[in-house]
Amino acid sequence: MTIWQALLIAVFGYFSSIYSPWIIGLLGGWYTMGRPLVSGLIIGLILGDVQQGIIIGAAIQAMYIGLVTPGGSMPADVNFAAWIGIPLAIISGADSTYAVSLSIPLSFLGVIAVYSTASFNSLFVHKMDRYIADGKLEKAINIPVVGQITNFVCRFIPIFLANYLGAQFVPTMVSLIPEWLGGILTLLGSMLPLVGFALLLQYVVKKKLDLIYYLIGFILVAVFNVPIIPVVLIGLLFAYMDMKYSQTDLSSMKKTNIEKSEDKHKLLSQKDVRKAYWNWMFWNLSVQNFERMEAPAIIRMLGKVKEKLYPGNKEAQKELLTRHEAFFNTEPYIGSIIPGIVLGMEEQSAIKKENSADLISGIKTALMGPFAGIGDSLYVGTLIPILLSIALGLSSDSGNVMGPIFYVISHLGIMLPLTWFLFKSGYSMGLDSAQLVLSGGIKDKITQALNVVGLVVVGAITSMYVNVKTGLSFTQGDMVIDLNSTLNGLFPNLITVLLGLGTYYLMAEKKMKIGWIFLIFIGLAVLGYFTKLLAV
What we know:
Layout: H1 3-15, H2 25-33, H3 36-47, H4 50-63, H5 78-83, H6 85-92, H7 96-120, H8 122-133, H9 137-141, H10 143-146, H11 148-176, H12 179-191, H13 193-204, H14 211-222, H15 228-244, H16 251-255, H17 270-283, H18 295-303, H19 306-309, H20 314-322, H21 337-352, H22 357-395, H23 402-429, H24 431-438, H25 442-465, E1 473-476, E2 479-482, H26 483-490, H27 494-508, H28 514-531
Antiparallel strand pairs: 1-2
Helix pairs in contact: 1-3, 1-11, 2-23, 3-4, 3-6, 4-6, 4-7, 4-13, 4-22, 6-7, 6-11, 7-11, 7-12, 12-28, 13-25, 13-27, 14-15, 14-25, 15-25, 17-18, 21-22, 21-23, 22-23, 22-25, 23-24
C-alpha cells in the first residue's frame, strides 16, 4: 500500500466516523459511507480491487447489521473494523472470514476512540460557555467546527498508521499462521454474522410468532432459491396483510387534524430556515460530549439566524444562545422535528417580544426522549437494517456494485426529504406537528410493517451469507454417507438456521451478553475444527 492510498483511506475513514460532520453529519457519513458494505466499495476503488472490497465489506456488514447505538452508547464501532480491517485483508490476500475475525478487536478499539473523543470534547463545551458569557458569539457558534480537532486525531491518525505500517507486515504475518489456526479463524468468521442477525432479531421481534416471518425469508432462499428483490416484494405483501387485518383501531389516525398557524408575520425567510436545517443536519454530533450531548449544535443552528431574530441586539442574541446551553440529546434525524419546533418558537418569541425561555426549554426537554425512541427504533433499528439487508442480497458473494449503490441512493433518497419535511413541519406547525407523530398509532403501525419486511429479508440474507456445514461422515462397507448432504436433503442449510435461532434465544431469552456469545462461537470453532463437527 502506498502512502497516498493510506492517506486517502484515512481521510474517508475520518469522514465516515460517527462524529464527523462533513458529509451531512451522520446521515451521509456514519450511516452511509461508514457502513462496511459502502466502505468496501470505496476501499476497493482506492486499492484497485472493487469486487474483493465489496465481498469483504459485505461480510463485516453482516456481522454488524443489527448495531444500534441508543442514547449515545457504543457497543461496537464499525469505523475501525471497516477502514482498517478491509484494506489489511485485501493487501494480505486473506478472505472475508479473516476480515470478520479481525473486525472484532478493531471494533473495540474504535469504541475507545469514541469515548475518548466524547470525554475530551467537554473542554470545548466549557470554552463555548465562556465565549457566550463574554459576548464572543461568533466564536461560540464555531465550537462544533473547532471541536473536530479531537475527532480528527482519534480517527485519521490511527487509520493512516494502521494501514500504512500494518500493510507492510500483515502479508508476512498471515503466511506464518499455522493451518489449524487458519481453519479455526475461517470457521469462526463464517459463523460470526449470525451474531449480527441475532442482535437485529432481538431488536425487531416483538412476539415469538414474528419469527415465522424470519423462517419464511430463510426458506424462500434456502429451499426455493428466490432472489432478493422478489423476497422484498413478498415481505411487503406480508406487511400489507398484517396492517390490513390488524385488530388495532386506526380511526384516531384519520381524526388527526393539523392546521398551520395563521400568523403571517415572519422574521425568517425560507432561505434562513434552510440554513438552520442544514446546520443542524451537518453539525448535530460534531462536538459530541457527555455533559451536553447535542446542545452545541442547537446553539450553532440558532446562532446562524440570530441576527434575523434580534437584529443589532447583541444582548438578546446572547440570551438566545445562553438558554440553549443545557443538555439536549435525541436521535438527530427523525428527531429533527425538535430543532424545527425550537426555531419556530424562538421566532414567535422574538416577534411577540415575550420571555418564552422556560416554555421552549421545557418543550425541548419533554420531546427529546420520545423522538429518540422513535428514531432509534424506526430509523436506526429498522429502516437501515432493511436497506442493508436488501443491499447485501444484491451483492451476495459476487461483489456486485449494485448492493452499495442501492443502499446509498435509497437511504439518502428516503432520509433527506423526510428530515427536511420533519424540520419544516416542526418550524411551521410547532407542537401540533409533534402531536401528529406521537399520537394516533402512526409510529407503531409503521414500525410493525417495517419489522415484518425486515424479518423476511433478514431471514433471506441469513441463508445467503451463512452456510454452516458439518464435516462428519459415516462409512458402511463401500458406502460413505455425508451427513451434511443428508441434512441438506431434509432441509437445506439446516445447521445455519438452528444455530441462528439458538443465538437469538441466548441473547433474547437468556439475556446473554455479546462477549459470552463470542466465547461460545470461539469454542464451537475450536471444537468443530478438531472433531470435524463443523467444516468450511
